[in-house]
Amino acid sequence: MGHILLLLMLSIPILCLTDGAETEQDFTWHLKKVPQIVSERTFSLDSPKFEAKAKLELSNVCGIECQRRLPVPSLSDLKEFLSYETVFENGTRTLTHVNVLGLAVDAAKNATTRTSSRRKRQIYGTDSRFSISDKRFMTNFPFSTAVKISTGCSGILISPKHVLTAAHCIHNGKDYIKGSKKLRVGLLKMRSRGEGKKRRGAQRGKRDVSVARDHSEHTSELKQRSKGRGRKQKATGRSQKTSDSKPSFQWTRVKSTQIPKGWFEGVTGDVSLDYDYAVLELKRPHKKKYMELGISPTIRKMPGSMIHFSGFDDDRSGQLVYRFCSVSDESSDLFYQYCDAEPGSIGSGVYLRLKEPNKKKWKRKIIAIYSGHQWMDVNGVQQDYNVAVRITPLKYAQICFWIHGNDENCTQG
To answer: Where is this region: Disordered (predicted)?
Structure first.
């Protein structure tokens, strides 16, 4: 029964209801001309210390209410925020200054849309997550795009060699966190009974043990910092028992990591959730189907105002966890939402499904990065919310530039 429900959710677009009646809306991926991010100069920097502690929950963060009071960032501000650091697997680091071309007037506005459903985040009720244990789902798109980061987070495949995740999975705003120097990405695979015996000597085994140890240390630290704030769960039938085939990971080294300068403390005053994203370049390409980037539409352009994401929540060890929920409020850079999630799912790619232009086919694209459970400044008072960082035209241009190394393939999104 659970499999049938899951198939229905994945294959049938959600209907928009108004006063109990269906309304036909334009749920389409509209191509937009995006600004150009152009590299100007690259400088060598000292190697990072890689000594920072993982920072799961942030405080005093400028949220949606705070953003409403901010002035529109100038072009020079945006050039500063979108400049980026690159850290390579040998520990060397560079800083690249960028220029922004073709920026539309409204592309940098902090406009927001209020919704009537706005309320403080609640932690109660039935756990609405689905554990994906059936290999028919787990090893196929879209679930196969979810990956595990060796620092204890999740991510999503966005090209044959690139992974999108949250910046604070790698950097706490001051320094790169412990374990990020030898960063690895785990791609999901299925392991049948009897598999996993000695193969290719002991070297592979030692490497897997090292990765597992790194992940265990970071997971333990993240759980301590979460202070039990996860949703109080009631038993449901949505957690499927593990079948004869168990999930495992094929670990791949990260060649380089890129993080926007807007994430660093001292650039925006404090860490800014607006820039809580990073791209990891893998040392070797994978053969899995990846998910394309999309520019985040407004809540009104989302079927049922719903978003989806899958990750590796810490409280369900070895399981891929899928969830969907509605967005309650938005600014030009952030979503507040009520998806059930635990540490480990941070960095997951948030996606939705819309029609392709002039086609009847529906397509999934990534529209945000799940930043996690954060403390936001709401009229001078700290309140906690589940937050996702939207992919705006500027962020789309930057991430696309990181993937392709030029702006020629990033003119529309």
So the answer is: 190-253
Which is nearest to 350 in space by CA: 186, 205, 166, 110? Answer: 166
| pLDDT score of 133 more than 70 | yes
8 Å CB contact between 312 and 345:
yes
**Res. 366 pLDDT band, cuts 50 70 90:** very high
CA distance 356 to 354: 7
Q: Scanning the structure block, which residue is given the tokens 């059936």? A: 134
CATH architecture of 36-193+244-404: Beta Barrel (2.40)
What is the DSSP secondary-structure string of 140-162? STTGGGEEEETTS-EEEE-SSSE
pLDDT digits (tens, 9 = 90+) for 305-327: 889 999 998 888 878 999 888 88
Specify the pLDDT at position 162. Answer: 97
Token pair in block for residue 78: 């945006």
Q: Report helix, strand and coil shares of the chain as percent, to nearest 5.
A: 20, 35, 45
